[in-house]
Hints:
Chains A, B, C: It comes from Roseibium algae. The structure is a homotrimer of 355-residue chains. Chain A has 355 residues and is α+β, with helices and mostly antiparallel strands. The first copy, chain A, contains five helices and 17 strands. Chain A folds into two domains: 8-119, Rieske [2Fe-2S] iron-sulphur domain (Rieske Iron-sulfur Protein), CATH 2.102.10; 126-335, Naphthalene 1,2-dioxygenase Alpha Subunit, Chain A, domain 1 (Alpha-Beta Complex), CATH 3.90.380.10. In chain A, the strands form three sheets. A seven-stranded antiparallel sheet of chain A has the order 11-17-16-15-14-13-12. In chain A, strands 1-10-9-4-3-2 form a six-stranded antiparallel sheet, with no helix packed on it. In chain A, strands 5-6-7-8 form a four-stranded antiparallel sheet, with no helix packed on it. Chain A is elongated. Chains in contact: A-B, A-C, B-C. The interface between A and C is medium-sized, with 30 and 36 residues.
Amino acid sequence: MEFIRNAWYVAGWSSEIDQELRRFTILDENLVLYRKSDGAVIALEDRCPHRLLPLSLGKRIGDNIQCGYHGLTFDCSGKCIRVPGQNNTPASAYVEAFITFERHNIVWIWMGDKDKADPADIFDLAEFSDPDWEAHQGDALHLKSNYLNVAENLVDPAHVSFVHPTTLGNSASENVPVHVSTEGKVIVAWRWIRDSEPIGFFKKFGDFTGNVDRWHYYYLHLPCTAVIDFGSAPTEDAIAEDDRNKGVRIFALHFMTPVTGGYTIDRWMHLRNTALGDEEAAANMDAMFRIAFDEDKAILEAVQQEEERPAKRRPIRIAIDKGPMVYRKRINEMLQLERTHDVASDPSPAFVYHD
Amino acid sequence: MEFIRNAWYVAGWSSEIDQELRRFTILDENLVLYRKSDGAVIALEDRCPHRLLPLSLGKRIGDNIQCGYHGLTFDCSGKCIRVPGQNNTPASAYVEAFITFERHNIVWIWMGDKDKADPADIFDLAEFSDPDWEAHQGDALHLKSNYLNVAENLVDPAHVSFVHPTTLGNSASENVPVHVSTEGKVIVAWRWIRDSEPIGFFKKFGDFTGNVDRWHYYYLHLPCTAVIDFGSAPTEDAIAEDDRNKGVRIFALHFMTPVTGGYTIDRWMHLRNTALGDEEAAANMDAMFRIAFDEDKAILEAVQQEEERPAKRRPIRIAIDKGPMVYRKRINEMLQLERTHDVASDPSPAFVYHD
Amino acid sequence: MEFIRNAWYVAGWSSEIDQELRRFTILDENLVLYRKSDGAVIALEDRCPHRLLPLSLGKRIGDNIQCGYHGLTFDCSGKCIRVPGQNNTPASAYVEAFITFERHNIVWIWMGDKDKADPADIFDLAEFSDPDWEAHQGDALHLKSNYLNVAENLVDPAHVSFVHPTTLGNSASENVPVHVSTEGKVIVAWRWIRDSEPIGFFKKFGDFTGNVDRWHYYYLHLPCTAVIDFGSAPTEDAIAEDDRNKGVRIFALHFMTPVTGGYTIDRWMHLRNTALGDEEAAANMDAMFRIAFDEDKAILEAVQQEEERPAKRRPIRIAIDKGPMVYRKRINEMLQLERTHDVASDPSPAFVYHD
């Protein structure tokens, strides 16, 4: 599977990376991640250029890594600084190093052309620093699914009525059309369901006594970050579309990390403008999210298995697919652009070991 | 693996199919099977044409199926009757439907050209309705083996001497030649072993005091149904070949369902002209069949593994292989016929998902 | 993977082979091994030429094997001597037989051109029969690794400093260069570490009070036998390189059997000139070897996994790789020689079963 390389991906929650040498697989590449003694996150190619042993099986010598097979030692830039048994270190003795950036307890990584890496491009949200909001990290959901199908799911408000009928959707929204627009690198798919029974999530966390106006805004930040802005307000308040902060409002964030062509990690968290400081409410919300996201997992993994079988005819597209279709189109454009303009890519074919 | 499509296959025992949506794989195709409220068995392609989710993961709305991802709903003919979020249902929104037929607590399915499906062609046996006989369903034996090798085993009386020495064969039959004839779509391979010790099965169920005349008739109804007619009578009775009802006579029926090219389900049952109404005897017979068929399973799965390895030379054929050889020849003729005459087959190459 | 066929390989310890029919896989070929009633080891192709059932699933009739499916019977030369149901045995009814040789409780097998099999070529060591030495068989270490990487490890004195720091190496040897020479079919890689702390192994088994002179000689007998001659003597004794019997000296023998292209069995044992007759010391030494060889296993299996992935660039070679590099070169020469001169090889392409 071909991946977009010139993009910031989430490597992990900050809590997943410490002084130990740990392997992470991102865009089908194996990396060793660890923190230097000063806390900075280092990401190196996890394969010694000599006999190919993963460096994550070696050991730290200060901030450097010594390979566990013959002791070749690499500094944080990936440069080999020692080859036991000889005085020189050949120029070809190096591992690739990757740029990382940490913010809001999230570690981002840049897998592409280093000249194009700009931390200003990293996803951020004003609400992370807003005292009226509170952020709460959830889990890392492992999905045996390619990331494109995960992303489709996250720019698709229509599925909640059928996949999450007890938590994030209900039958009131089944036939409501979806609106889609794009703003730069963000695709937005949304719909409002006015004057209907609250969904399970807001029955539990909204204290609503009557019908509500409910919204679902799916913001897909290309290529792999999704913000689901959903919430409800009493129908009697008749709030305007731009006045969503007047209701109970939740942002469910999903950071998709393509691991391989058939495996994706979805690290999810939420921000909320309600129950501030209430850890129990946060835990209860996450419990409800887990129910919903496990429902997605079951579906996405079944779809992946079907896609791996031969098919008799092309799948069909329907009206509510507009978000997913725009997403696929934009991804293909980005891939096409990288194919033609990325001077950093290696033109030589991959070398495969055979005996 | 190429399968014969214009044939009736057993989809399952009647007891395996109920109101639940269940996936069955037949001829490498995934189907969802369920009973309508009137009890009729419905068989549909188990894959939504939209996002490919198996319909068996959806839910029933009356006799129809609603897909679990976006709610597309299909009636019992496979036609899409609802696409949430839009008013029309595109013509390409359908799943394939398959013809089924139920008799003697067995559900048959037709996977080929619908115009050629004729229930009159379905295997039947007068003894199912004969008061002097009793039928008893056994198990569904799962075999990691292609169906051709399973079928060979079921048109091969010679193997019982070596594979089933304690149940269905003994050393008396080791060197007895096998006769083979064909009658239309039935291949018969048989032999008589006169004046010898009873086999284990008839020691237990025959009450014989001395030597017996024993027969094994293997009827292979092309492509996938086998009737093993075996029995014994006291040698002193000197029964004629056509007088087998005078002895203790058993029909072991095997309905082979090719699941994939390397997996077959053999649903087996027996009919007997002895111990009528004796459920304990029936259970004891099945216990002995289980011993024997597990011996076949061990051999067929080992053969499958060997066939998947490269070989240095072609396997040899010997005199007792006449039944299997006729079987292979007939299967190849049937496949050839379908290749050249089946106008219902789809001429376009299979579409495979890639990203 | 292409293997050298004209060579003696270890099939197993003598204790692994008895009267039972057992499958062994060597050079990606499945064999059935068993002892005749006179104790001689028979090795036959483990696949009946009729329906391909492994003969190891059949049963012994005296010294012969009867196939478990239809009773074809093969003698110890692989010739079919009985086909039930017919009087003749076709010439094509045979299995390949392999030459074996047993000595020092080790069973060797010749997988190549029979005319070239000469037991005089089998690895031997005078110390097996020397009263000043004692031999002790260890284990059969199963490695998910091709044999070439295992062999590299066994002609590479440099890795012990990093892979086995508590048992067979320590930091004193990290930077000591390696010498390599070849003597006929033996590659020798060695180094001395003079005047340093004893390694873990000799702390436990050497009774040394001060610094020692330590040696590691890695003899790789092409293609698959390794003798690691290692030992220590008090530095104050200043022994000469050829005087190693004056110190505490151990031979660790490794017999590599390539099972498949990705799987190798390393049967290892030791000979020692110390603690003669002391079974407890022998067991303690083996316990320490197990720690060390499990360290090798972890590394070799990780390297195998990496080699199976595509690579961006060729691996580098460094100064201490001289032994492994000579080994690879010699193996390639031997393979090339067999390709061009082995008249026994089958020129026809392998036959693969397909349906």
